[in-house]
Amino acid sequence: MALPTVAQETDLSEEEFKQKIDSVFEHVDMTSVETGILIEHGFNLLDPNVFNGQKPDSVYSNKEIMKALYAGLYDSRVNDYFSLEDTDSTFSKIDNAKNISILFLAYNRFKDYMFKSGDIYWENGQLKKNRQFQVGKPL
Predict the structure, then answer these.
(1) Distance between CA 36 and CA 30 in Å, rounded?
(2) How many CA atoms lie within 13 Å of 116's alpha carbon, on the beta-carbon side?
(3) Would you tell me the crossing angle of helices 87-96 and 63-75 to the nearest 10 degrees?
(4) Measuring CA to CA, which of 28, 51, 95, 135 is 20 to 30 A from 117?
């Protein structure tokens, strides 16, 4: 969601990028994100919903995929309700592991109907709301 606006400015530092993303979500009540992770807030290269454990024999994973998933979830943190180890430490553990363990995290995302119904909309580079809303329940 936020990527098209922010990604156009390629000379941003990591901190400037985070500030831009935070400004996009300025009108979203992050205290309603009960897991501490709002998936749309992060820069997710992979859709974590694909790796939901439903059909483990049909989802390929390796160390690089695990790191990309973790980085996206780590980047999607919006409050301190849940803590995640920093990415460097986690990546080092993944790189040095002989076996990849399974990581299960609950996260929130916007309810699918919110954009279609007009509950939230895009204006001047920010998400706005027509009425009070909460993000969807944890997945």
Answers:
(1) 8
(2) 3
(3) 170
(4) 51
